[in-house]
């Protein structure tokens, strides 16, 4: 329904519901689209990548400090 290309008015008429109901359904559909398994997995990878980059930065700083002594 959300990707059918129909207008809110067409959907409202077809299903016999209020326009606000259709808007609510579309908002919920977009919200749920964010939590597909692929998006959850991508988010986990991004979080891990951020953590690993920070660890690498710390290791580089530590290596420079140890090399000076």
TrEMBL record:
It comes from the Bacteria. InterPro entries: Homeodomain-like_sf. This is Transposase.
């Amino acid at each position: 329904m959300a990707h059918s290309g129909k207008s809110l008015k067409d959907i409202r008429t077809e299903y016999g519901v209020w326009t606000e109901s259709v808007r609510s359904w579309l908002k919920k559909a977009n919200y749920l689209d964010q939590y597909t398994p692929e998006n959850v997995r991508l988010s986990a990878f991004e979080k891990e990548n951020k953590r690993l980059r920070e660890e690498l930065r710390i290791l580089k700083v530590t290596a420079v400090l140890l090399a000076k002594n």
